[in-house]
Design brief:
Elements (H helix, E strand, L loop, with lengths): L30 E5 L5 E5 L3 H4 L5 E5 L1 E3 L3 E6 L4 E11 L2 E8 L8 E4 L3 E9 L2 E5 L4 H8 L14 H6 L7 E4 L11 H9 L3 E8 L22 E3 L2 H6 L1
Parallel strand pairs: 3-12, 4-11
Antiparallel strand pairs: 1-2, 5-6, 5-8, 6-7, 7-10, 8-9, 9-10, 12-13
C-alpha cells in the first residue's frame, strides 16, 4: 500500500536568523555531513573531503553557469514588471516568469533595465514567450542581475556575481547555482588531481522552479518543473 504524503508532513521550524545571508569567507569553510559505510554520521568540514576519497574515485560535476537572469522595467503602457528568464529557447528568445500587476498579453512591449525593449509573443503555461532585440546572453550580461534565491534578502552585487557561481562553471543557462558545487575552490580541485581523483561533467541548467512552492496538499498531485540537461558520452563512459 503506497503511503500518501502531504505538504504538512514536511513542516518544520526554520528560524530566519539561521538562514545565512552571505557566504563563508572561504568556499571550503562550510560544514560537511559524512555518512560512512557503517551508517554512522560524522560532523566534518568541507576541507576534509579529500581525506575521504581514494585514488581513481570519480566525481561528477554540473558545469552549468548561472546567467544574470533577473531584469526589472515597465510595460510600454506603464506599470512595473520583473522578468526572470527561465530558459533561452533561441539566441534572441526566452521563456520567462513575469511579475506584474496585470499579466502582459501577446504583443505587449516591455522596457527592461531602461536599456532595451522586448516583446511578449504569448504564453507557455506559467511562462511568457518573449523576444529580445538581440542576443539574449549579451543583453543579460550587460543589464541583468544574478537571481539570488528568494530567502536571500539583499540585492545581488558584484560579490554575489562571483560567489554564486562554481569555479568550474562553463555552460551558461542556469538561473540558480548547483549549490553543492559552490564549496569547491581551485586548491581543492588541485589536491584531488594530486590524489588521482578523476572528474567528469554533466550540464543541467537549474531552473527557477527549484524555488517555487508546492501549491497542492497531496504531493502525488504535484507536477515537477522540467530542466534542460545533457550527459556527454565521455561522462557515461567514465561512470
Amino acid at each position: 500500500m503506497t503511503q500518501s504524503l502531504t505538504v504538512s508532513d514536511f513542516n518544520y521550524e526554520l528560524p530566519p536568523e539561521l538562514i545565512a545571508q552571505t557566504p563563508a569567507a572561504e568556499r571550503t569553510g562550510s560544514r560537511l555531513l559524512h555518512l560512512d559505510r557503517a551508517g554512522a554520521l560524522h560532523d566534518r568540514q568541507f576541507a576534509d573531503l579529500a581525506a575521504l576519497l581514494r585514488p581513481h574515485d570519480l566525481l561528477v560535476f554540473n558545469d552549468t553557469r548561472v546567467i544574470k537572469a533577473r531584469l526589472t522595467g515597465h510595460k510600454i503602457t506603464g506599470g512595473k514588471v520583473e522578468v526572470l528568464v527561465e530558459r533561452i529557447t533561441e539566441p534572441d528568445r526566452v521563456l520567462a516568469h513575469v511579475r506584474a500587476s496585470k499579466s502582459p498579453g501577446a504583443g505587449m512591449v516591455l522596457r527592461l533595465a531602461d536599456a532595451f525593449e522586448a516583446t511578449v509573443l504569448g504564453r507557455d503555461g506559467e511562462l511568457f514567450d518573449i523576444r529580445f532585440p538581440g542576443p539574449v546572453l549579451a543583453l543579460l550580461d550587460a543589464h541583468g542581475a544574478t537571481p539570488l534565491p528568494p530567502y536571500i534578502t539583499h540585492q545581488a552585487d558584484a560579490g554575489d556575481d562571483e560567489r554564486y557561481q562554481t569555479v568550474y562553471a562553463r555552460e551558461p543557462g542556469a538561473v540558480a547555482a548547483p549549490t553543492a558545487g559552490l564549496h569547491f575552490d581551485q586548491p581543492t580541485l588541485d589536491r584531488l588531481d594530486a590524489l588521482s581523483v578523476t572528474r567528469a561533467f554533466v550540464t543541467l541548467h537549474v531552473g527557477a522552479g527549484t524555488f517555487q512552492p508546492v501549491r497542492v496538499d497531496n504531493l502525488a498531485d504535484h507536477v515537477m518543473h522540467a530542466e534542460w540537461f545533457t550527459v556527454p558520452q565521455a561522462t557515461v563512459d567514465a561512470i
